[in-house]
């Protein structure tokens, strides 16, 4: 697959996760490769041939789903495709985020560009035009069962390409889709045989959210290592348990990576060195400190498995029916979202547990019986001041919510379409709750770092490692050091932003080099 710094070329090979993030999150332009345009034209010729055949073909000359037994007369087939999109654009609830809708549209375009769907070249080009004009169709929270793919969300995108429904323009204004297309020099698509079906049969919404979540989690699991290192320092824990030879005894890959990060981050820590001598008896720290690599590493390994599934899905052509290379048009079940739904649920479990161990490390700072000489709740004057007491409450509330969000959606199949679609993936629902989980994890880690930074200051004149000091100093640009109680919510939000925009990670890596 060809790519420049500003344009993602769709076709030739599968999109990468980086391509999806570039277009969905950062507004990169897209272009369909010349080779793909040729393949699209070839498969369209096959569909047009079938449209005139006496034998009925699903989606070309028949109805859909439980109505597939009806043969549709040629003069009604354009109406059939329009009716399909209009009726399936049945979402409800809040608007879905712009980056998710852009990922959804890009991934549908990627399948169209394989030349296995039978759409016209103009239809595929219309999706590229929509993305490049930064027009975002209004897609709603509810409506997808994850089989036959993300029908309702994809239908809302297809509706906009037809010039119907509503979109957000590049400035975020809500506009009629037809007017917005015209204002950007784009023409509505008139759908022909098979095209409506090709535009709505896919796992694109759940896959897009999986790719975006994995990009976020790559940053967050490294940030969790930073937070854990700060807690190890602030609670006068030992770093001996992170030794490479100890972790080699259990060759779990992610665990070794996390332990290596912790060793790197804690390099030259004056606080750790202060109690590293032969008389140190801190060899049995609490699990939340001692077992950080084991938990953080398991999250990494879970994400690695999810990445493998995502990469396979990015290389897929999801439609039903599909036009095969030999010209056959065959029905199939590749639109079923089970592979994606399972890993979305798996990641929600991992995210909840990563947040849980972070909250436990934070709580230890606040308990005077466990924080090794610090004031109760890190308060300036305990009793008069409450310190970070309620910050931990906020963490605990979020962690409890993440545990609820970790309940799998993919086991909750519900039949639809008059029992024709009698087993569905619920992958869209799994993806929606994972996005909430990722947001919660960011907030939990932000509070741990906020609390640990206060503890590091209270350990003066002992000095933290250069890496953790850099993280603390990045926070201190926005949040003052220890003192009497202040309005805590804005300080938490500053820390959340520093997690979310990668500042903490960037500052640590400026000292350590790239973390693993």
Automatic annotation (TrEMBL):
UniProt KW keywords: Histidine metabolism, Lyase
Example of a GO cellular component annotation carried by this entry: cytoplasm
NCBIfam families in UniProt: hutH, PRK09367.1
Protein name: Histidine ammonia-lyase
Pathway annotation from the record: Amino-acid degradation; L-histidine degradation into L-glutamate; N-formimidoyl-L-glutamate from L-histidine: step 1/3
Superkingdom of origin organism: Bacteria
EC numbers on record: 4.3.1.3
Protein species of origin: Kribbella antibiotica
Family matches, as InterPro entries: Aromatic_Lyase, Fumarase/histidase_N, HutH, L-Aspartase-like, Phe/His_NH3-lyase_AS
Gene behind this protein: hutH
């Amino acid at each position: 697959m060809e790519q420049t710094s500003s344009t993602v070329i769709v076709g030739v090979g599968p999109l990468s996760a980086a391509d999806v993030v570039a277009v969905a999150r950062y507004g990169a332009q897209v272009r369909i490769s010349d080779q793909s345009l040729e393949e699209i034209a070839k498969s369209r010729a096959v569909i047009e041939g079938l449209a005139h055949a006496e034998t009925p073909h699903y989606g070309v000359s028949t109805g859909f789903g439980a109505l597939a037994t009806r043969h549709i007369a040629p003069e009604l087939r354009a109406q059939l495709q329009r009716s399909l999109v209009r009726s399936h654009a049945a979402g409800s609830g809040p608007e879905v985020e712009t980056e998710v809708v852009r990922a959804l549209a890009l991934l549908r375009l990627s399948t169209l560009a394989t030349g296995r769907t039978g759409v016209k070249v103009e239809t595929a080009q219309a999706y590229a035009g929509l993305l490049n004009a930064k027009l975002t169709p209004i897609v709603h929270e509810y409506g997808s069962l994850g089989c036959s793919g993300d029908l309702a969300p994809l239908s809302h995108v297809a509706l906009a390409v037809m010039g119907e429904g509503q979109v957000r323009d590049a400035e975020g204004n809500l506009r009629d889709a037809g007017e917005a297309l015209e204002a950007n020099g784009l023409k509505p698509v008139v759908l022909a045989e098979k095209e409506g079906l090709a535009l709505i049969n896919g796992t694109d919404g759940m896959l897009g959210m999986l790719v975006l979540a994995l990009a976020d989690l790559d940053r967050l699991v490294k940030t969790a290592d930073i937070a854990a290192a700060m807690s190890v320092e602030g609670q006068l824990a030992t770093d001996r348990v992170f030794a490479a030879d100890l972790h080699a005894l259990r060759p779990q890959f992610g665990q070794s990576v996390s332990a290596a990060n912790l060793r790197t981050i804690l390099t030259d820590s004056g606080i750790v060195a202060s109690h590293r001598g032969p008389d140190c008896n801190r060899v049995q720290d609490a699990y939340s400190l001692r077992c950080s690599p084991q938990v953080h590493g398991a999250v990494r390994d879970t994400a690695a498995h999810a990445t493998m599934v995502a990469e396979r899905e990015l290389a897929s052509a999801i439609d039903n029916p599909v036009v095969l290379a030999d010209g056959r048009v065959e029905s199939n079940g590749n639109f079923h979202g089970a592979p994606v739904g399972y890993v979305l649920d798996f990641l929600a479990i991992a995210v909840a547990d990563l947040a849980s161990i972070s909250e436990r490390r934070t709580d230890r700072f606040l308990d005077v019986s466990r924080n090794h000489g610090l004031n109760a709740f890190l308060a300036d004057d305990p009793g008069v001041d409450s310190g970070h007491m309620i910050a931990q409450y906020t963490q605990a509330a979020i962690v409890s919510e993440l545990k609820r969000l970790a309940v799998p959606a993919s086991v909750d199949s519900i039949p639809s379409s008059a029992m024709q679609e009698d087993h569905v993936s619920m992958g869209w629902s799994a993806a929606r709750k994972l996005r909430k989980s990722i947001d919660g994890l960011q907030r939990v880690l932000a509070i741990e770092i906020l609390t640990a930074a206060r503890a590091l200051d209270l350990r003066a004149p002992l000095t933290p490692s250069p890496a953790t000091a850099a993280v603390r100093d990045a926070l201190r640009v926005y949040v003052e050091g220890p003192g009497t109680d202040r309005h805590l919510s804005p300080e938490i939000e500053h820390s959340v932003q520093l997690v979310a925009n990668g500042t903490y990670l960037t500052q640590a890596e400026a000292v350590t080099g790239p973390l693993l």
